């Protein structure tokens, strides 16, 4: 997906090439999904961190 040998086309390489040559709907969809997953993971981690602090009785600063 992100790491490949010299003959393979990785996802970032395909995304960059797609932007330069032609915009592929598939590559745009994958990029959107990756961004959404990243945002969801960051939000979940932050909510769990706040919950942990609240359960310990610590106040967020």
Helix content: 55-70%
What class, by secondary structure content?
Answer: mainly alpha
The major pleated sheet works out as: none
* Number of self-contained structural domains: 1
SSE ordering: HH
Mean pLDDT: 79
Describe what you observe in this structure.
Helices cover 69% and strands 0% of the residues. The protein is mainly alpha-helical. It has one domain (11-54). The protein starts with 10 loop residues before the first helix and ends in a 5-residue tail after the last helix. The mean pLDDT is 79.
SSE blueprint:
Layout: H1 11-20, H2 25-56
Care to give the gist of this entry?
Helix content is 69%, strand content 0%.
Task: Write out key terms for the chains shown.
elongated, 61 residues, mainly alpha
């Amino acid at each position: 997906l992100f790491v490949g040998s010299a003959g393979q086309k990785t996802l970032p390489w395909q995304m960059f090439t797609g932007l330069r040559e032609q915009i592929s709907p598939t590559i745009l969809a994958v990029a959107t999904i990756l961004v959404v997953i990243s945002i969801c993971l960051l939000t979940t981690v932050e909510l769990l961190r706040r919950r942990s602090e609240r359960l310990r009785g610590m106040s967020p600063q």
